[in-house]
Amino acid sequence: MIENETIPNDSLSFEELCKLLLDESQIRFAGILDGMGNLVAGGFREGVEPLKNESERKKMFMEAVLRVRTRQDFDPDLGPVKYAASRRDAVVMMTFPIKGNNVLFVSAEPSIEIENFANKILNTMRRVLGIL
Questions:
Q1: Which residues are registered as beta bridge partners of 98?
Q2: How far apart are CA 4 and CA 116, in angstroms?
Q3: Distance CA 59, CA 57 (A)
Q4: Distance from chain centroid for Cα 1
Q5: CB–CB of 62/36 below 8 Å?
Q6: For all residues of the chain together, what is the average pLDDT?
C-alpha cells in the first residue's frame, strides 16, 4: 500500500475486482473486508462450497484484518506488506492490504503457486483500483 494514494469510495470497483478474481478457476473466494472484518464486496465463486460456516468465516475475517493491521506496525522499518499468504491442506489464504483499512481476502485451491498468483492479483488490483 502506497501512502497518498486514494481508492474509489465506489463499492462497484471492489465488486469489479472480486468478479475478475473469481473468474480464475483456482480462486474459491475473493472479498473485500472493512476494518472490522465485515464483508463489503465479493464472495464465493459459483458452485464452491464454503469450508466454514458463516459465524466461523466472520471470525476468520476479523482475525485476518487484525493480522494485516498488526503487520503495519513494522512498515516504517521494513516497508509495507504487499500480501501475506498461508498454505493449508485444504486451501491457500491470502490477504492484501488496501488503503482505507480495507483488506482483500482471497482463498484458493491448495495447488496454486502462491507467488505467481499473488503477483497476478496485485496486477489486477493495480488495474481495477489504480493503487499499489
A1: 102
A2: 27
A3: 5
A4: 13
A5: yes
A6: 88
